[in-house]
Amino acid sequence: MTFETLSQQRCHGGVQSFHRHDSAQTGTPMRFAVFTPSGEGPHPVVWFLAGLTCTEENFTVKAGAQAIAAALGLMLIAPDTSPRGEGVADDGAYDMGQGAGFYLDATQAPWAPHFRMRSYIESELPALIAGQFPADMTRQGIMGHSMGGHGALTIALRNPGRFAAVSAFAPIASPINCPWGVKALTGYLGEDRAAWRAYDACALLDDGARVADILVDQGEADPFLTDQLKPELLEAACARAGVALELRRQIGYDHSYWFIQSFIADHLRWHAQRLAR
Amino acid sequence: MTFETLSQQRCHGGVQSFHRHDSAQTGTPMRFAVFTPSGEGPHPVVWFLAGLTCTEENFTVKAGAQAIAAALGLMLIAPDTSPRGEGVADDGAYDMGQGAGFYLDATQAPWAPHFRMRSYIESELPALIAGQFPADMTRQGIMGHSMGGHGALTIALRNPGRFAAVSAFAPIASPINCPWGVKALTGYLGEDRAAWRAYDACALLDDGARVADILVDQGEADPFLTDQLKPELLEAACARAGVALELRRQIGYDHSYWFIQSFIADHLRWHAQRLAR
After folding, report:
1. Rounded to whole angstroms, what are the CA distances from A136 to A29, A36, A143, A180, B93?
2. Contact criterion met (CB < 8 Å) for A261 and B10
């Protein structure tokens, strides 16, 4: 397996680095970014899964997370959101194909061979991180934004005990019940809705999956709030499941990284508290 | 005069906005970004002048400054670094022409008609800010990076009493004495070196200009340190002038916004202290 460090720069006493490797899961080169705080480690790890159209750069450059991660001693991992390249299937729209992997393993043509972001994020990339970085894989948290909020919630719910903390910014609460999700799940997984339930936080909760608690921030001026994100569905599912959800509706905030950067400190502190020894 | 708000988004309890207006000085549309903290104001103002190749976006997106500015109640203004567009002269290289205005008023063809960034930053934009934003123009600070560090230092030195605080990240300490500066000053101002002195912080100090004190951070792993930036020249000029310079040489840091974001909190606190009533 190839593993390349593309850049490595001093930041807040630690190192911000960008990497590329050949992924066995996606069959393509994949990129990711890592912030390593100062000190020898091993450091607790927080994953950030980005939303539609994003790469490993959006969160890393725009969220202002490193200052707080450095102060809290957290390592940050920001993967890309899909396989990419000329041989990889794509869709004309921004909500399917490259930049829109939806953190699932596709079963349908033409997506199936490369679109394996679930296995990539759940298995392949953690093994690489554990081998190449001073990461304490016994202390992991996961968070994400929009499509990546869906990814963080579903990956945490499907892997009980792995993540001590889970949070999201404006997550797609229930892909089964919104246009982005129905399009993606139909395309990647086919018409059989039973197969969709592993990729829907609300369905996973209804089917018995549990996490200790969840923090969600949602902007009230988010243009996707009503039709796509539907935090009220997560609220209801958590209530049915008895999972403690802290859902904060933030007046005036939209769907952008200006919103994420405004509350990233709260999220990282939430994770640090739950990752403390 | 036209004045347009291109976007306006909630951020850290305040508003991050981007604007465009027709500049009388440059004869072109110019863009700038403003962070307005929460509260009615008027708010003290900190200017950030960016470096070669940058626009109003680099600092605004990459420096993580809004979190601290919000906490300190500071308004941030980030202008573009030059006039731009099809009718504006350019140079094939990154260090001259569009994206490289050097914060001076050009006297030579083909630059003279549009490249008037000194008058734009010193006169036109402050008047626009005072008229359109809840800015307390009696409390201003100025900072910048690289070419913009040169801009911040020289603008503060030429306008005694206007800025209560001045600081820089990796500034070009003496354009007269480095390749970037000699190329730009020759091109924009011609061969007469007497005309260059108004655009050189060290020469201005030697010629009697004064500020109360200066904070400078300089990365020791900055690839431009030895040939272009030369902080030792500013150190010597401040010593000759009796100006208190706090020059911090930061081990391992380069010339990037990873470096700037690592120390922006210190700079904004330095400004806030000096801008306090």
Report:
1. 25, 12, 17, 35, 46
2. no
**φ, ψ of residue A54 in degrees (nearest 5):** -85, 160
Interface-testing mutation among B6, B8, B9, with chain A (most A C-beta atoms within 10 A): B9
Residue B270: both structure tokens together: 């330095």
Mean pLDDT of chain A: 97
- Is-catalytic flag, B222? yes
| A42 prior amide bond cis, ω within 30 | yes
For chain B, what is the mean pLDDT?
97
* Cβ-contact A88, A45 below 8 angstroms: no
User: Looking at this protein, which amino acid is placed at residue B56?
Assistant: E
Q: Are A230 and A173 in contact (CB under 8 A)?
A: yes
pLDDT digits (tens, 9 = 90+) for A251-268: 999 999 999 999 999 999
Q: How many Å apart are CA B264 and CA B63, to the nearest integer?
A: 7
CA of B184 vs chain A CAs: smallest distance (Å):
29
Note the pLDDT tens digit of each residue in B110-153. 999 999 999 999 999 999 999 999 999 999 999 999 999 999 99
pLDDT at B106: 98
Can you tell me the distance from the alpha carbon of B57 to that of B50, in angstroms, rounded to the nearest whole number?
9
From the CA of A222, how many Å to the nearest CA of chain B?
11
* Burial zone of A10 (CB within 10 Å; 0-12 exposed, 13-18 middle, 19+ buried): buried
DSSP annotation string for B78-107: EE-SS--STTS---SSTTSBTTB-TTSB--
SS3 track for A170-186: CCCCCHHHCHHHHHHHH
A205 confidence band (pLDDT: 50, 70, 90): very high
Q: Is the pTM of this model over 0.90?
A: yes
Q: Which of A6, A8, A10, A60 to mutate to test the interface with B (most CBs of B within 10 A)?
A: A10
Q: How many residues does chain B have?
A: 277
Per-residue pLDDT of B199-214, as tens digits, reads 999 999 999 999 999 9
Residue pair B16/B60 in contact by the 8 Å Cβ criterion: yes
CA dihedral B72, B66, B261, A21 (to 10 degrees): 150
Ramachandran category for residue B270: left, alpha or beta (phi over 0 → left; psi -120 to 50 → alpha): alpha
Q: Which of A181, A133, A136 is nearest to A154 (CA)?
A: A181
Q: Which residues of A touch B66 (CB under 8 A)?
A: 64, 258, 261
- List Cβ neighbours of A192 (8 Å cut-off, separation of 6 or more): none
